Amino acid sequence: MIFAQEAGDSTEIVRAIYEALSTLPDVSLLSQPETDKEEASPPSITFQPEICRSTSSNLSIGKRYNAPCEQPSPFEISLSTFPAFLSFVLDFLGDPVAVCRFKMVNRLCLKYVDEHEHVLMRDAVRLGGLQINVRPSFWLWVTLEKDSRESCHRKEDPDDNVIMGARNELTLLERKGREGKWNNVIHRDVLRSFGNLPPHKSGARLRTDSIVRALATWGRSRILKSGIRGSGDPPPPSHSFYEEDDDDVSLAPTDTVSDWGAVSPVGSVTGSFCSTRLDGRHTKKFERQAEAQELALGGSALSDIAKARLQEKLSFILHVLAATYSNVGYCQGMDYVAAHLLRILEDTIRWKAVTGNLPSVIQFEPSSMIGHDNPDQSLSDMYAEVDKSSVVEETCFRVMDSFFTTYGLRHFYWPELRCLKTCCLVFEKLVQIKLPVLADHFEHHELNIGLFALGWFQTLFLYLPSMPAATVCHMWDIWLVERNFKIFFRVGTAILFLCQPVLLNNELEGMMGYLNTFPDATLLSPDILIACALQIKVTNRMLTQIECDLYQKL
């Protein structure tokens, strides 16, 4: 019998402990083969001095006995000998949530996932994407919680007298933005946000005879989760936590995010799909939604109340951005990105504020513990209290601030758009490498790729007239995890690849008309476009080399 330390106790007490342990079953034999039972040595334990001091005539030693570890399970043996097999399992699942849940299986899984979290999360997001009800929380976690970022505001103007960290910080920044030179431009763009599409963008329709489906046959055969990205039936409805008045609910489905995220705030709960009741009371509402489906590509029919509420929040966010980044100011394209964030995150932020689960970086809190003072308070009333505290605007601004700093999005909006124009030149060179025939066709007809690519990159592909929300969100999922712009170059190249048969049969006017309206919107389907984009190899080294070559020529 082995002891870990000598406690200086009498021999009688030690003998009593050994005799008490000898009466217990020899659990070490459980892990031994049948032929070794007679030769097995007594179990090894760790001597605890406090046992001897607290032991009386009746020794309760069994509670202090540390049984030897049992044999590892086959899963643990496989994981310890070949840990990479866990990557194959997670790749097969294609679910970022499963990556996080695997941390709770055992310590080996926790260690492996922590060491390879970025690669595992990247592959899972590329393959399967995110469930529409998980995406808002995932975006908040990635941008505000994952790196525990505490500093969100950065003074770029040395004469800025705003007191950082004050409770009324955003109010002061918003007031400063309204007094600045960007107020009129922001006001103009906000008034056009969440509205109808311009006439030249309303002609896109999904076609069943599209040539794109023949070119991208893998879009049908990919293993996709039902309802995530357009293939299969829509997901079951996520029951809303509260019922809004009919006057505040848009009947238009939110399949399209064109023109400043022209979508319904109610649709932001479930992303880009129509939510219908399954309890037998949905017939009339479903028929009205089906009727509105034909008009979805022409703009969403928001009520005046909902539209005014969203525009007020969007105006607040843009003014704070313009004041915070005074060297950048305001640039068209910010309104697209901020409006899309507001659409996706609004309801999740409200719910987190009510339940007290907001990220720690959020400074604004509701004025009181909502729901505690009045247990009978409805959730709609709680949401109204949350809106008064500007917590939605605060959170969306923090996410935009993360985009500007961590993800480098502010470089796209520098004065004179220098970085954005450089991206267009890099994209043009990439098209010459990947699609040489189409590049020669563009050059022959003197079509500058920047004429249409500038709007794509400036709005992160929200400018496209009939881009489905599911496609944009999946694209952004990959961007937020990878933290570079490769996915946008891939998507742009994939769009031109899928349009190539049409573009090669048109001259300058026909090509520009097609790229501005996308009459065949089938190619923008996520299970076609994203799948095609991920097949196009674009590396950081390739982009860096192209950029260096451009600077040498300049």
Description:
The chain is mainly α. The chain has 4 domains: 11-64, no CATH class; 84-127, no CATH class; 157-196 and 234-407, no CATH class; 414-553, Cyclin A, domain 1 (Orthogonal Bundle), CATH 1.10.472. It has helices at residues 11-22, 49-54, 74-81, 85-93, 96-101, 107-115, 117-127, 135-145, 169-179, 183-191, 211-215, 218-221, 258-261, 283-293, 304-324, 334-355, 379-388, 391-405, 418-434, 436-444, 450-458, 469-482, 486-503, 508-517, 526-534, 540-553. The longest helix is centred in the middle third of the chain and has 22 residues, at 334-355. The radius of gyration is 30 Å and the shape is globular.
Give the helix/strand layout.
Blueprint: H1 11-22, H2 49-54, H3 74-81, H4 85-93, H5 96-101, H6 107-115, H7 117-127, H8 135-145, H9 169-179, H10 183-191, H11 211-215, H12 218-221, H13 258-261, H14 283-293, H15 304-324, H16 334-355, H17 379-388, H18 391-405, H19 418-434, H20 436-444, H21 450-458, H22 469-482, H23 486-503, H24 508-517, H25 526-534, H26 540-553
Helix pairs in contact: 4-7, 7-22, 8-16, 8-18, 8-22, 9-15, 10-15, 15-16, 15-18, 16-17, 16-18, 19-20, 19-21, 19-23, 19-26, 22-23, 22-25, 23-25
Rough shape? globular
The radius of gyration is 30 Å
Largest sheet: none
Q: What's the number of domains?
A: 4
Total number of helices: 26
Helix share bin: 40-55%
Strand content: under 5%
The total strand number stands at: 0
Q: Give the structural class.
A: mainly alpha
Order of helices and strands: HHHHHHHHHHHHHHHHHHHHHHHHHH
Low-pLDDT stretches are: 1-10, 20-63, 149-166, 214-299
Mean pLDDT: 71
Distance between the termini: 80 Å
